[in-house]
Amino acid sequence: MTSPDLPAELKAALEARLKGFSRNDAAERSTSISKTYRDGGGSGAIRSEADALAYALARMPATYAAVTASLNALCVIRPGFAPKRLLDIGAGPGTASWAAAEAFSSLQDFTLLDANDALRKLALDLASDSFRLRDAVYERGEARSLLSKAEAADLVIASYMIGEINESEQAALGALMWEKTRDTLLVVEPGTPAGYGRIIALRERLIAAGAHVAAPCPHDGKCPLQSPDWCHFTQRLQRSRAHKQVKGAELPFEDEKFAYVALTREPVAARASRVLAQPTVTKVEVTARLCTPTGVKLTRTPRRAKADYAVARRWRWGDAVSDER
Ligand SMILES: C[S@@+](CC[C@H](N)C(=O)[O-])C[C@H]1O[C@@H](n2cnc3c(N)ncnc32)[C@H](O)[C@@H]1O
User: Fold this and answer.
1) What is the pLDDT of residues 265-301, one digit of tens each?
2) Is the pLDDT of residue 325 over 70?
3) Residue whose CA is at the smallest distance from ligand 1 atom 8
4) Which of 62, 70, 112, 271 could form a disulfide with 88 if both were Cys (CB 3.0 to 4.6 A apart)?
């Protein structure tokens, strides 16, 4: 399993860029960028080198953690997956490329696409410190037009990106991302009802186009969850001093909620159930809500079933588990 915390190399590169910038100024910029996101705006508010750095210090640790958690879940289901080429769509500061480089030592060829010049410059600057990423190609422009000319890749990732484009663009970009996927497409979004809604819409369209779900769902059928319920997961990450200062936060960690789907060309061999919320463990039993190949189930594992109880008490929200008894 890859750690959800930024690799030391990236953390050091980010903090080195902060030298010469005022931390208060970075905090103000990050607050204003976050407000734009909350108000439904996108990354267009990131215009300068200082904006890009403030965004990356405040958000890159969390989006990195969400992508890493999704890749870890994919690797549990497909342990032999060894992609060579990556396409990172809406790459921003290069978050998903860093996460994929950590998760897959097999990756040799990284292509990043994004419209934002300030984020592209920061990404190239950060990548110049990395042995794995320093030869990455980063193209600037509108995702769909760049992608239509790009060579297909074994792994395609769009992290926290599709929420910045409208529904018809999402459909068109989703189809194109799938066309450019040789093996696996991973899409990660914030773990909100709206983020989940975008993941589910894309999932349904691409299954209709022949895709199979590797994670998180143990089936290619319709999502059994009913509103107001929505499928999402959470990943804890440590906050560095700079991260806390830029966010004006005190706690040394934060929990990032995210929703994701990993779609593959070939159906996966094993269909494990997915833990949908943190199980409740008491001295009497473990109660867990699972998404299974045949629908959502509330399972109770009594303490008297010693071996099963010992296994179930280690289940965590987001795990792939076998619930055969
Ligand atoms: C919230 S940021 C996420 C960045 C990065 N993937 C991450 O997870 O940290 C969204 C990124 O998508 C890019 N983006 C949004 N719409 C785009 C489009 N139509 N074409 C290219 N890039 C786009 C933005 O410029 C921005 O860098």
Assistant:
1) 999 987 899 999 999 999 999 999 999 999 999 999 9
2) no
3) 159
4) 112
* Lining residues, ligand 1, CB within 6 Å: 42-43, 60, 63, 90-92, 95-96, 114-116, 119, 142-143, 159-161, 164-165
Q: Average pLDDT of 46-57?
A: 91
301 CA from centroid of ligand 1 (Å) = 43
DSSP string, 29-72: HHHHHHHHHHTT--GGG--SHHHHHHHHHHHHHHHHHHHHHHHH
Element (H, E) at 244: helix 241-247
147-185 confidence digits (pLDDT tens): 999 999 999 999 999 999 999 999 999 999 999 999 999
Structure tokens that stand for 83 in this block: 């992609």
Question: What is the b/e burial string over 23-62, where b = at least 16 CB atoms within 10 angstroms of the residue's CB?
Answer: eeebbebbeebbeebeeeeebebbeeebbbbbbbbbbbbb
pTM tops 0.90? yes
